[in-house]
């Protein structure tokens, strides 16, 4: 676990506030996985927030994989038990994390969610949710797909963890838009469990079983990387329209060499930055919006070297 030193909260919470700075002054940032460039970019944003908050401590951790839901639940429970001042959480499962954030609420510890929300029963237990509008992002990918492949033919969806909040919006938005605006046939979705190797193998199988495939969509970072590697290994680079999600160096290179038509990139850095700032505001009794859209950018060869793209790529 990495410890980051961050700033004095601008206004001390009064004794009448529902939230107050705990004795250890820790803000715990807990993400879906510590082994992804995407989540490491969230950490960089948290480090940037640290420059403006010197008397608190921010800790950063996540399980080994996004499918290790029980491990993430335990991390939240442990943070509550050690009396942290606030929690930033990317929930790997919309239902499993609800009891843990309820414990935080009962302990008067503010929770700010990022990336993926929790089910409706948990709505009262968190103070703000910062994320991409995943439904709109999925629709954007679908618009690009139709623009490139047309309205007939066959496309595939390579997804990640079924039921994750971001997955529901991102794949659901894509699927709904395709069905509403085209006659494209959808193969899948296939679930990689956010494991690159799984996505590679699944993509290899899908391409083999569907030689007439016109397009393929990889809905998160490890899935899109595995998908692109599978396309390249099958000799299909540039022969079908492949759209990925997120923007690590591997995905950038796949756009540059034409394996991927484009990537849709979230501002994970901004999530880390603004979520820590939001927790600090709640502790300081400053109201924050219940939902904050951190936006996305579609990146292809034409704009990958632009300043706007460099601000979200990692």
Automatic annotation (TrEMBL):
Identification of the protein by name: Monosaccharide ABC transporter substrate-binding protein, CUT2 family
UniProt keyword Metal-binding, yes or no: no
Residues in Periplasmic binding protein domain copies: 27-283
Keywords linked to the UniProt accession: Signal
Residue runs in coiled coils: none
MF terms (GO), sorted A to Z: carbohydrate binding
Homology family: Belongs to the bacterial solute-binding protein 2 family.
GO BP terms: transmembrane transport
Residues making up the signal peptide according to the UniProt record: 1-22
Main location: other
Any one of the GO CC terms: cell envelope
